[in-house]
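Weekend entry, working from home. Most of the wet-lab plans are on hold until the incubator is repaired, so I used the time to fold the two sequences that have been sitting in the queue since the last round of cloning. Logging both here for the record. First:
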Amino acid sequence: MECPRIRRLFLGLQETRRLYCEKVMATISGSCFELINKIDSIATNVNLLRMDIWKVAEHVTVTKDNVGVLQRNVTDLQETVSCLQELTMLL
């Protein structure tokens, strides 16, 4: 024979757990969304940086080595951003 009071307590605990899990999932989802937005912003800034490097190279006398170093640095940044974007797909 089941005790109604224990049954109500058990159901209350289940509901509390469900609500807590929903809140945690909403927090995680919100954080992931913010992270994705920040990574997209970084990707945009890296692309703008690449364009700025070419603009500077057009108007300033720089050595090919310097331009090459800048291009490699930006390429490294783009690869890092790509990895971060792939990571967000897993979230």
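Second, folded right after the first finished:
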Amino acid sequence: MFGIPVTDDNVDLHSTIHPFSAHADLIRKATAIIWDELHMANKAALECVDKLCQRII
């Protein structure tokens, strides 16, 4: 959904979604984002989604 790459080190991840793509537009139009089991997510993945949202909104 967020284009988070899967790597061995999970450090400094960058989303593969471009800010002006249709996928970014879908995220931009979302009323809410529900991330099930967020507490189990890697910190780098959460930061990646945060950076993505800051870029596209």
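Plan for Monday: verify the second prediction. The mean pLDDT is 93.
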